[in-house]
Amino acid sequence: AVRGALHIKKVGHAGTLDPMATGTLVIAFGHATRLLNVIVAHDKTYEATIRLGLRTTTDDAEGEVLVDGEARSRWQTLSAQLTEGGQSGEPTALPTASWQDLLTRTIATNFTGDIEQVPNTFSAIKINGQRAYDLAREGKDVELKARPVNISEFSVSAVRYGYASSVRAGSPLVNAAEVAPDSAWHANTLEPDMQPVMELDVKVTCSAGTYIRALGRDLGDELGLGGHLTMLRRIRVGRFSVDMPNVMTAHTEAKTFTNREGIEVTRNRAVLDDAEHAVDHALDLVASAAASMDMLPVTEQEATDLRFGRRIAHDIHTTMAAYVPETNDLVAIVERAKRGETKPVAVFN
């Protein structure tokens, strides 16, 4: 969509979003694509809704529900354990403190700080050159290894409970209610295809490479209930956020076509809401760099030296962007060479 709007081929992004997700997507074009390797490594912040009590094939509402015949009895057992005098199999009260204490303790113990996370089967990770989600859709077994990630924030802002369809993922809650001290858990379901669930509105700040879907899945597994995401929104990538003044919006439209095998396929495509003025939303190179990393002001002579690959006399300790303030000229991405010297690693003409 951006290539078409700007009539330029050199366009890249700093990390895609899941099909269900909304939010911040950083797109660079022209010389600014050199900044993407820095941006993609930045931490990110998400808002999400985790539905506990149901699993899906994709760990979000895009997949098919995985029926768990024991989930309801585990709900009742857990409710009884959290309620004084409660007995398994009977309607039990849900004191806010008990559930929130359990959730807070479980998240703090298992899902904050440095953890090991197994990515979702339906993910873009490559296995022997093929995307994991392509292999999964073909019905092949996909085994992904756990990888280290860091969760610096995992907070719960709201908790709701009710019933959801055990047939269709993402269905709305029935008899939904906020958890409150005088709330009661509806132990008797009127419809056979409805499952008791609890929804958590959460905010997560995490390192690059973290899967929020996996957090929802693993939190549900840790509680013995199963879980998946019903909403996901990325509100920040490094210093780029959804409320920046230059943000432009986009939506998806379904496009149906016949592929090479003669099969009719329908896919979503991105459509920019203000494509004619897309370039007006772009940051200039210096502003783009400033939103990507720390800045190092240099002189015209130092700029010339950097562009010829020479080192300059600055003592830095992290990757920075060198620029000439007087001319608003982005010169290079620079790193520490040794004490008192800085070297260019990417130069902007």
Q: Give the overall shape, derived from the CA principal axes.
A: globular
Helix content: 10-25%
Strand-and-helix sequence, N→C? HEEEHEEEHHEEEHEEEHEEEEHEHEEE
- Count of helical stretches: 8
Give the integer mean of the pLDDT values: 85
Strand content: 35-45%
Low-confidence regions: 85-95, 179-189
Q: How is the biggest beta sheet arranged?
A: 8 strands, mixed
Distance between the termini: 27 Å
Count the E strands: 20
Rg of Cα set: 25 Å
Structural class: alpha+beta
Task: Please tell me about this protein's structure.
The chain has 349 residues and is an alpha+beta fold. It contains 8 helices and 20 strands. A hairpin with a 2-residue loop joins strand 8 (126-127) and strand 9 (130-131).
Q: Any descriptors?
A:
alpha+beta; eight-stranded mixed β-sheet; four-stranded mixed β-sheet; 8 helices; globular
What would you say about this model in short?
The chain has eight helices and 20 strands. With 349 residues, it is an alpha+beta fold.
Could you outline the blueprint of secondary structure elements for this entry?
Layout: H1 2-6, E1 11-13, E2 22-23, E3 27-29, H2 36-39, E4 44-52, E5 55-56, E6 65-66, H3 71-82, H4 96-110, E7 113-117, E8 126-127, E9 130-131, H5 132-137, E10 147-165, E11 174-178, E12 194-206, H6 212-223, E13 227-237, E14 240-241, E15 250-258, E16 264-272, H7 285-290, E17 294-297, H8 300-307, E18 320-324, E19 329-338, E20 341-347
